């Protein structure tokens, strides 16, 4: 893809249907759990992206046979029954936070020495809380640079179990990583969450995937979890629902253009918490039609809102784009943790909106957006797929919007611009 992508404004309201690729969050969790399970598991509806590719490549390096068929969106995993085959491996995770966190925990189950690393941004992303939690369980694991960020080295002797505590205010992925590998420990494991848990709906995804593979855990108290040793059982075939975070861009396109866009394959009961982005659009004035296997957003005149997006923070950038076309300011708050994502997303939102001439107020955990006349601009994306996909939506209504490094969408949605162009051809 070229260095920049010129977004073409649409001639009228969008009116069409689209099905985004499978959920990255579910795909990478299902890959870890299927790897730990006994026997063969077929995953269908699998997302093919750099985040899932580096996960699959790493599992193969750990001696777990994973056969990926991108054309048919399937993966066949030969589970290791809780015993990691390889005794050493070097894993390269680029900038995939889910992959490096989940795999660090997975390597602790093995017997041997493992190194996990990534690109320059990955070496700025915190992982020390997970390291400390694993160390409390007797794992010899460390951040080699001493910064609390990758690279990570694991000298594994099997996961013994025991008691550990983990902070909840940076990333729910730490707890998800511990929960998924705890059944493979030699003894019971008790995990205590310290402080507020961010992005709690992602824990529901983790627990839902684990349950599909026959494992349940005890929630002793609100923030205390107890997991007994047990083996994941293969469910045969496991179908992965479309990505709700990716769906948010198409819902937002309906809101911005005043159109009607349907996303197939999702409903209000989806496993992913980001499906609740439609409630945010509803609060802004959109009409929502909820069916058994689809959701349709009908764009209406938009009004600004004040919204806590802690639990659906991956859609914060999507809302920032929609907010530009609302009557009155929009405040996106309680999202301090998104400063530790692929980029500092709060800073990136504020910087790029200002580049378009928009007044923005940024605090430690929020941005407030005041709609105004939008100026043409080349939007920097900071190697962050969500910056590219969300800010491209602005160009549906405003000429002169270009997206720098559009290829960064390969992280989770390689065909995003193809699908957006197709939808843009469906105007009413």
UniProtKB/TrEMBL annotation:
Q: Which UniProt keywords apply?
A: Amino-acid biosynthesis, Aromatic amino acid biosynthesis, Cytoplasm, Transferase
Q: Which residues bind phosphoenolpyruvate?
A: 24, 97, 125, 173, 345, 386, 411
Top-rank taxon, per record: Bacteria
Q: In which pathway does it act?
A: Metabolic intermediate biosynthesis; chorismate biosynthesis; chorismate from D-erythrose 4-phosphate and phosphoenolpyruvate: step 6/7
Locations listed in the record: Cytoplasm
UniProt EC number: 2.5.1.19
Q: Which residues form the Enolpyruvate transferase domain?
A: 12-420
Which residues are recorded as binding 3-phosphoshikimate? 24-25, 29, 171-173, 199, 314, 341
Any one of the GO CC terms: cytoplasm
Main site of residence?
cytoplasm
In the UniProt entry, which residues are flagged as the active site?
A: 314
Q: What's a single GO BP term from this record? A: aromatic amino acid family biosynthetic process
Q: Please give the residue ranges the record annotates as the region Disordered.
A: 1-21
Molecular function, one GO term: 3-phosphoshikimate 1-carboxyvinyltransferase activity
Subunit and interaction comment: Monomer.
Its biological purpose is as follows: Catalyzes the transfer of the enolpyruvyl moiety of phosphoenolpyruvate (PEP) to the 5-hydroxyl of shikimate-3-phosphate (S3P) to produce enolpyruvyl shikimate-3-phosphate and inorganic phosphate.
Looking up PANTHER family in the UniProt record yields: AROM/DEHYDROQUINATE SYNTHASE (PTHR21090), PENTAFUNCTIONAL AROM POLYPEPTIDE (PTHR21090:SF5)
Check the record and name the NCBIfam families matching this protein.
aroA
Protein name as catalogued: 3-phosphoshikimate 1-carboxyvinyltransferase
| Organism name | Gimesia benthica
């Amino acid at each position: 893809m070229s260095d920049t992508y010129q977004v073409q404004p649409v001639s009228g309201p969008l009116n069409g249907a689209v099905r985004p690729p499978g959920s990255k969050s579910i795909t990478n969790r299902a890959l870890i759990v299927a790897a730990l399970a006994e026997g063969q598991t077929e995953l269908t509806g699998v997302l093919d992206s750099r985040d899932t590719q580096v996960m699959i490549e790493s599992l193969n390096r750990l001696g777990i046979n994973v056969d990926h068929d991108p054309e048919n969106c399937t993966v066949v995993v030969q589970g290791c029954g809780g015993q990691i085959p390889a005794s050493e491996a070097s894993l390269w995770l680029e900038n995939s936070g889910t992959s490096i966190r989940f795999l660090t925990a997975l390597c602790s189950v093995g017997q041997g020495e493992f190194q996990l690393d990534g690109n320059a941004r990955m070496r700025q992303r915190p992982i020390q809380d997970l390291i400390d939690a694993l160390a409390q369980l007797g794992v010899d694991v460390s951040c080699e640079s001493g910064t609390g960020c990758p690279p990570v080295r694991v000298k594994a002797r099997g996961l013994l179990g025991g008691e550990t505590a983990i902070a909840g205010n940076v990333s729910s992925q730490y707890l998800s990583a511990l929960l998924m590998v705890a059944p493979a420990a030699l003894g019971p494991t008790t995990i205590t969450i310290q402080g507020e848990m961010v992005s709690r709906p992602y824990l529901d995804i983790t627990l839902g995937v684990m349950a599909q593979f026959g494992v349940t855990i005890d929630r002793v108290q609100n923030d205390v979890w107890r997991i007994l040793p047990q083996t994941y059982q293969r469910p045969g075939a496991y179908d992965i629902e479309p990505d709700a975070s990716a769906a948010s861009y198409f819902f937002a396109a309906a809101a911005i253009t005043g159109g009607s866009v349907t996303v197939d394959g999702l409903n209000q009961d989806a496993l992913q918490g980001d499906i609740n982005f439609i409630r945010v659009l509803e609060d802004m004035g959109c009409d929502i039609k909820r069916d058994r296997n689809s959701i349709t957003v009908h764009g209406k005149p938009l009004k600004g809102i004040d919204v806590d997006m802690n639990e659906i923070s991956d859609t914060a950038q999507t809302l920032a784009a929609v907010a530009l076309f609302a009557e009155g300011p929009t405040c996106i708050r309680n999202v301090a943790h998104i400063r530790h994502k692929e980029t500092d997303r709060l800073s990136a939102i504020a910087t790029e909106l200002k580049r378009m001439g928009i007044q923005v107020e940024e605090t430690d955990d929020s941005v407030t957006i005041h709609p105004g006349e939008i100026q043409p601009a080349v939007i920097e994306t900071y190697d962050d797929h969500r910056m590219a996909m969300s800010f491209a939506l602005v160009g549906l209504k405003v000429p002169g919007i270009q997206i720098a490094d559009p290829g960064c969408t390969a992280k989770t949605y390689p065909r995003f611009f193809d699908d957006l162009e197709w939808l843009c051809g469906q105007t009413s």
